[in-house]
Amino acid sequence: MKQQALSALKKYYGYSSFRPGQWEVISHALDGHDTLVLMPTGGGKSMCYQIPAMLLNGVTLVVSPLIALMIDQVTALRANGMPAAAIHSNQDERINRDIIDRASKGGYQLIYISPERLIADFDIISNSIEVSLVAIDEAHCISQWGHDFRPVYTSLRAIKERWPDIPVMALTATADRLTRGDIAVALGLRHPYAWIGSFDRPNISLEVLPDPGKRGRLRVISDLIRKYRLDSGIVYCLSRKKTEDMHKALSDLGFRSVCYHAGMSASDREAAQKAFVDGTAQVVCATIAFGMGIDKSNIRWVVHNNLPSNIESYYQEIGRAGRDGLPAEAILFYNYGDVITRRSFAESSGQPEINNEKLDFMQRYAESTVCRRRILLSYFSEETTCDCGNCDNCRNPRGKFDGTILAQKALSAVIRINSREGISMVIDILRASNRAEIFSKRYDQIRTYGAGRDLGSRQWHNYILQMIQLGLFEVAYEDNFHLRPTPLGMKVVKGEQRIELSVFQETAYNRGRKEKAPAEKKRSQEETLLDRLKEVRKDISAKENVPAYVVFSDATLTDMVRKQPKDLDEIRQVSGVGEVKSVKYGRSFISAIRKFLGLKTGRQAGTSVKETLILFNSGMSAEEIARTRELSVSTICGHIAQAAESGEPVDFRRLVTGQQLATVKREMDKDPENLFKRLEEVHGIPSHITRLAMTELRLGTEASSS
Ligand code: ADP
Ligand code: ZN
C-alpha cells in the first residue's frame, strides 16, 4: 500500500517522499481508523487526506470553514489532475446538486464542503454518494478553548453518529493541550490514532524590535519588500485605521501595497486578496481577518506592527510565511502601549482570566532575552533541548550588567509620584521631558526629574520592561496601567538587593544601516535564473488566471534552479512537478532554462523520443504534440514508432485505426514493392501512419511468435 501511496504522491504532486507523520496518518486512515492530525501550518496536512482520497474507492469529504480556502484547494487539486469540487452556499444550488449527482457516478474523489452544508445535506449525501473518509480541517474551531471557536462546528459530532463506520480525520495547526483534548471528544472519534507533529518551523527566523518608532517601522518593512522583491509579505495591524495608515505610507513610498480588513466591502476584500495571491501586490496590510484562507506558499515575511493577543494567533499568523520550507522572516514590533490596549480588550472579553493569561504569555515572548523559539514551543508543550540559532536573541546574545542604579532611579521616580503614572510618563520624568503635562503636574520639581537623561527613551523603555519582568514593578491593570513598586522593588531601592539587566542593543534601523541593502547586492547566477523562472510562472498564472503558487511553489522553482532540467524527463525529477504539470507547464520552464544556459531551445536531439512519449502518454494527440514541439506530425509518429520498438508500451489505436491497420496488412501481404506510395495514393493513408502500422504488425508478430 505504501508503494501505491508513494506513486500517487509522485504522480500528482511530484514529490518523492512523505514528510514526518504523513504516511503514519495515511496508513491509519486507509485502514479505516479515526485520526487526529496536529501539524503546524505548512506541515503538509492536506496530503494526509488527499492521498487516501486518490487511493480509496468512493469520495473523501473535506469539511472546511472557509469558502475561499475551499476554492483555492480545488483549483490546486485540479491543476494536478485530481477530480475535486466544492459544495457551499455561495454558489448556485444547481451547481451543488450537479456536483452531488456527478459524485454519485464516480466523477469526483474529493469534495470540499462547508460544515453548514454537510449538516443540511446529510440525507441526500448518504443516499447518493459512497463516502469513504471525512476530513475535518481547522478542527480546533470546535473547541471553546481555542481562539477560533465556531458554533457550527459543534454539530459535526453528528458525523460519527450517523456514519459510525466511516473514518474521520480531524486536522489542525493550532492546538494547545486543552484544545487538543477537546477535539477528539467533541467529534466523538473512536480510539483515534493521533499524530502530534512538532510545531517547530525552523525556517522562520524570529525577531522582536522594541519600540521602533514610525520611521523605524517603515524602514524595516521597506527593506523586507526590497529584499524579497519578487515575493510578498504581510503586515498585521491592530485596527482598521492602523491598517489603512500603513498601507498609505507604503504606497507613498512607491510599493505595491493593498489593504485588507473587515470594514471593507466583500468585493474590495476579494480584489485585495486576489492582487496579493497573484503577486500584483508585494505587501498586504491587514487585520487578523486576513490570511486564514490563504494557501500561498511564497510569503517570505510577516511583520506584526502590533502585539498579538495570544501565542496561538501569533504562531498561526507568522506560519503563513515560508510554507514551502524556504527561509522566511517574522518580525514583531513591540511597544508597551500595545500591551495596555490588549489588556483592556482582554478585560472586556467575557473570558478575562483566560485571555489575560494568554496575553501574559505573548508579552513574555516579546520581552524575552533568551531564545524566543523555545518560548513558543514551550507554549505548545514541546520540549526543546537547545537554543534555535535562528532568533534575534540567539544570534546576538545580550550581555548582562549591574542594573541596580538604573532600577533605583526608576523606582524612586515612581515612588515620588505615588505610583500615579504609567511607563511613558515615568520615562519622560527620568529624561526631563518638557511636555506641558510634566509642568502642570509639577513633576519637574521632584528629585529624580532628569536623573536618567544619559539614556535614550528606547533604552529606558526596554530596561523598565525588564524590571517589570524581574518583578521590581507591577503594572496596575485595573488602574490605568500605573507602575507600582513591589516588595522586591523596595528592597532594591534600599540597596538590600542588586539586580542584573541585559544590555539593550539598538537595532540596525536605528543605527543607520551600514550593510548594503540586499537589493543592491550583485545577484548571483542562481538568483538571476530564479527570477527568470518566476517571470515565466507569472506569465502562466496571468494567462491561465490561477495564482502563481498553483503553477509551481517557490520551493519547486528553487529545486529547478538547482537541477536545471533540460527536458521533460529531467523536469520530472524536480520536487513538486507532477505528471499533469510537467506536460502543461514543463516546456515553458525548460525553454527559459535552456535559454539561460545558452542552449538551443527548439528541437532537442537525443531526448526527443522520450519527450514525445511523455506527451503522448499524457493524452495529447500526435498533432498537438507536433504543434507544441514545433515538429512535423511525421517526426512525432516516427518518435512513437521508435519508442515502441525499444519496448515502451504504446497505445497504437490512438494513432492507427483498425481499418487502416487491416488495409496496411492486406497490401503488405499482396506486394511489398512501392508499399508507401500505393497506400498513400490509392488508400489515402499517409506514410507515417503506414510506418506506425508496420511497426505494430511487426511487434505483434514478434510477441505472438515468442
Ligand atoms: P498545511 O495544510 O499543513 O498548512 P499544506 O498541506 O498546504 O500544509 O502543505 C504545505 C506545503 O508543503 C505545500 O506546498 C505542499 O505541496 C508541500 N508538501 C506537502 N507534503 C509534501 C511532501 N511530502 N514533500 C514535499 N512537499 C510537500
Ligand atoms: Zn533562538
Radius of gyration: 32 Å
Biggest beta sheet attributes: 7 strands, parallel
What percent of residues adopt helix (DSSP H or I)? 40-55%
Mean pLDDT: 87
Small-molecule binders here are: adenosine-5'-diphosphate, zinc ion
Shape: elongated
Which strand order spans the largest sheet, edge to edge or round the barrel?
A: 3-4-2-5-6-1-7
Q: Please work out how many helical segments DSSP would assign.
A: 35
Poorly predicted sequence stretches spanning 5 or more consecutive residues:
511-520
Number of strands: 17
What separation lies between the terminal Cα atoms? 34 Å
- The class by helix and strand makeup works out as alpha/beta
User: Into which percentage range does the β-strand content fall?
Assistant: 5-15%
Structure description:
This protein is α/β, with parallel strands linked by helices and 706 residues long. It is built from 35 helices and 17 strands. The strands form four sheets. The chain has a seven-stranded parallel sheet, with helices on both faces. α19 crosses α20 and α33 packs across α35. The chain is elongated and about 120 Å long. It starts with a helix and ends with a helix. The protein binds adenosine-5'-diphosphate and zinc ion. The site of adenosine-5'-diphosphate (ADP) has 18 residues, from α3.
